[in-house]
């Protein structure tokens, strides 16, 4: 069915609907093991590492198929792809709820990976970019504000469901939510995309030069996003352990870790208020990687300013999400934005799958200082890469 009603074409309604589905998609996939992993391990007898490995398998597959997702959104718009994500996530939860053998559990997470590829930020950004072109920056920023509340909404919901019905009931509930809430929103609210305008005829020599410059910008941007994804994934899993290794008690570590979420949302609000169409998004990217580097170096260097370090890190991580959605709109052909987002997502999702295991290996080799030193160096390299990207943009 076509979303032809004026209401379905309202940008505010579209962003709000996508925001709701982003909260539910993130909360029931990427953030799911934070609450369900321990109950699943206790109930099945599988090791906690084996249970969490399901998410890594899902992220790995999501990265591998993301270019296909981007091309599909480029060709057909976001409605069929995001609707398919609701069906895939529902099927994954149904299989999780009934899985009694570990291979079935992993298959469920592979289905979840397909749903994450077609239903999380990159697919949402690609949908908005396909609809609004270079005018999508504000909509992308607004969408990240919704997504920032995924763990805030879904962690308590998951815990409530587990407490009253067990983890299998929680999975069944999420399957029902995807079918009853997310699927109708995707089908009803997302309008069909505008037709792609024919490409103008270009001078061959200029086109070759432009292609070489675009390739360099793509490699730099993909590298920046991949390093940022590695940092965020490793810290999201190991932050509490790292804080405790630096002498912070568990309760205090949890309280300090809770600063990251509000810092992310606060930085996104600030970007929304001061940044919309007022500066090039390359400066948002530079600010994000600089804040990430400052926060991690401060966390490594001082046990006194841990709270400030985590606020800086959270702010940088928050606006990085905006930058990675908005920057490709101005660096590359906006009519190829959806396909490009799929390609950019591949290395980021693959490193997200591997980063927790890499962090665990580093912890075993050299403790928390080795992990933080590695992350601080990676964040510093990212600042350098961003400076190179600025230079490439100016040429």
From TrEMBL:
<feature type="transmembrane region" description="Helical">
    <location>
        <begin position="81"/>
        <end position="100"/>
    </location>
</feature>
<protein>
    <submittedName>
        <fullName>MFS transporter</fullName>
    </submittedName>
</protein>
<feature type="transmembrane region" description="Helical">
    <location>
        <begin position="218"/>
        <end position="237"/>
    </location>
</feature>
<keyword id="KW-0472">Membrane</keyword>
<feature type="transmembrane region" description="Helical">
    <location>
        <begin position="306"/>
        <end position="332"/>
    </location>
</feature>
<keyword id="KW-0812">Transmembrane</keyword>
<keyword id="KW-1133">Transmembrane helix</keyword>
<feature type="transmembrane region" description="Helical">
    <location>
        <begin position="140"/>
        <end position="161"/>
    </location>
</feature>
<dbReference type="InterPro" id="IPR020846">
    <property type="entry name" value="MFS_dom"/>
</dbReference>
<feature type="transmembrane region" description="Helical">
    <location>
        <begin position="44"/>
        <end position="69"/>
    </location>
</feature>
<feature type="transmembrane region" description="Helical">
    <location>
        <begin position="243"/>
        <end position="261"/>
    </location>
</feature>
<feature type="transmembrane region" description="Helical">
    <location>
        <begin position="282"/>
        <end position="300"/>
    </location>
</feature>
<feature type="domain" description="Major facilitator superfamily (MFS) profile">
    <location>
        <begin position="14"/>
        <end position="394"/>
    </location>
</feature>
<dbReference type="InterPro" id="IPR050327">
    <property type="entry name" value="Proton-linked_MCT"/>
</dbReference>
<dbReference type="InterPro" id="IPR036259">
    <property type="entry name" value="MFS_trans_sf"/>
</dbReference>
<feature type="transmembrane region" description="Helical">
    <location>
        <begin position="167"/>
        <end position="190"/>
    </location>
</feature>
<feature type="transmembrane region" description="Helical">
    <location>
        <begin position="12"/>
        <end position="32"/>
    </location>
</feature>
<feature type="transmembrane region" description="Helical">
    <location>
        <begin position="370"/>
        <end position="393"/>
    </location>
</feature>
<dbReference type="Pfam" id="PF07690">
    <property type="entry name" value="MFS_1"/>
</dbReference>
<dbReference type="InterPro" id="IPR011701">
    <property type="entry name" value="MFS"/>
</dbReference>
